[in-house]
Design a protein that fits this description.
mainly alpha; 2 domains; 273 residues; globular; 10 helices
C-alpha cells in the first residue's frame, strides 16, 4: 500500500486541486452575500455580483465625469510606476551590497551589523519621517519601498553569496583572478538568479508599503482609491481593486519566474523542471 506521502497528483488532478480552494472561497462568498442581501437588500458589506460588475464597468471602462480619466487604469499606472522605481532601486542597492557583504570580509565586518539593525526597523514607522523630509510627493512613496525591502534583499543575497563553495573562489585565485574579477565572473553570474528570487519574495512587502503610502498622501493609485472608497463603504469598488492588486502581484511574480527560467536555464538542468 502506497503511503499518502509518496502519492503525486497527475496533471489533471493537480489543476483541479489548484483551483479547488479558489472555487470554495468563491462559493463561500456567494452564499454569505446572498444570505446578507436576503435580510437587507441594501447591505454594502458583501455586495452581489450585479453591484460588483457595475462598479468594475464604472471604474475601468467608463471615463470619469469630472476628470475624463479611466480611474482604474490611471490608478494602476500610478501604482506600478511607484512600485517599479522603488523595486529597481532596491534591487540595485541590495544586489551590490549583498554580494560585497557576503564575499569581502572587511565589507561584511563594516556593514553586517548595520544592515541587521536596519532590517529590524518597521518601515511604516519611518513613513512620517520621509514625508517630513521629502514632502508628500512621489519621492517619499518610492523611498518607503526602498527602505522597506532593501535590507531584506541585502541579507538574503549576502547569505547566498556566503554559500558559494569556497573551492570555486580558491580555483579562481589560483588562476590569477583579482578580487573584482572573482566578483564579476564567478559570483555575479551565480547570484543574479538568487537576486531575482529575493525580489520575488519581497514583492508582497513592497505592495504593502506602496498601498500604505498611497493611503496617507496621494491623489491617484490603487491604495489611494481603496482608502477613498472606504469612507463610503463602497465594497463593490474595494473588492475588485483588491482582486486586481492580487492579480497584478501574481503577474509580476510569474513574469520574474519566467524570466529567471529563460535567462538562467542552468538552474533547472537535471532537476526535472
Amino acid at each position: 500500500m502506497r503511503r499518502l506521502i509518496n502519492r503525486k497528483p497527475d496533471g489533471v488532478a493537480r489543476l483541479v486541486l489548484m483551483l479547488l480552494p479558489f472555487l470554495l472561497a468563491l462559493l463561500a462568498y456567494m452564499a454569505a452575500s446572498e444570505a446578507r442581501l436576503a435580510v437587507n437588500p441594501n447591505d454594502k458589506l458583501l455586495p452581489g455580483w450585479t453591484s460588483i460588475s457595475a462598479a468594475v464597468e464604472r471604474m475601468a471602462f467608463l471615463p470619469d465625469s469630472r476628470t475624463g480619466n479611466y480611474l482604474m487604469l490611471n490608478d494602476t499606472l500610478a501604482s506600478l510606476t511607484r512600485l517599479g522605481i522603488g523595486v529597481v532601486i532596491a534591487t540595485a542597492i541590495g544586489g551590490i551590497f549583498g554580494i560585497l557583504q557576503g564575499l569581502i570580509p572587511y565589507f561584511r565586518a563594516t556593514f553586517n551589523s548595520f544592515t541587521n539593525v536596519l532590517s529590524m526597523i518597521p518601515p511604516l514607522s519611518v513613513l512620517p519621517i520621509l514625508f517630513i523630509m521629502f514632502g508628500l510627493g512621489e519621492p517619499a512613496k518610492v523611498l518607503l519601498i526602498v527602505v522597506g525591502i532593501t535590507p531584506f534583499i541585502i541579507r538574503d543575497l549576502a547569505l547566498r553569496t556566503s554559500e558559494i563553495p569556497h573551492e570555486e573562489i580558491i580555483k579562481a585565485q589560483t588562476l590569477g583572478a583579482s578580487t573584482w574579477q572573482i566578483v564579476l565572473r564567478v559570483v555575479v553570474p551565480q547570484m543574479l538568479p538568487r537576486l531575482i528570487d529575493a525580489v520575488r519574495l519581497s514583492l508582497g512587502a513592497a505592495w504593502l508599503f506602496l498601498i500604505a503610502a498611497e493611503a496617507i498622501a496621494s491623489n491617484a493609485g490603487l491604495g489611494y482609491r481603496i482608502f477613498l472608497m472606504r469612507r463610503y463603504l463602497a465594497m463593490d469598488v474595494i473588492l475588485p481593486y483588491v482582486a486586481w492588486i492580487t492579480l497584478l502581484a501574481f503577474a509580476l511574480d510569474l513574469a520574474l519566474r519566467l524570466f529567471q527560467r529563460a535567462a538562467f536555464r542552468w538552474m533547472y538542468r537535471g532537476n526535472g523542471n
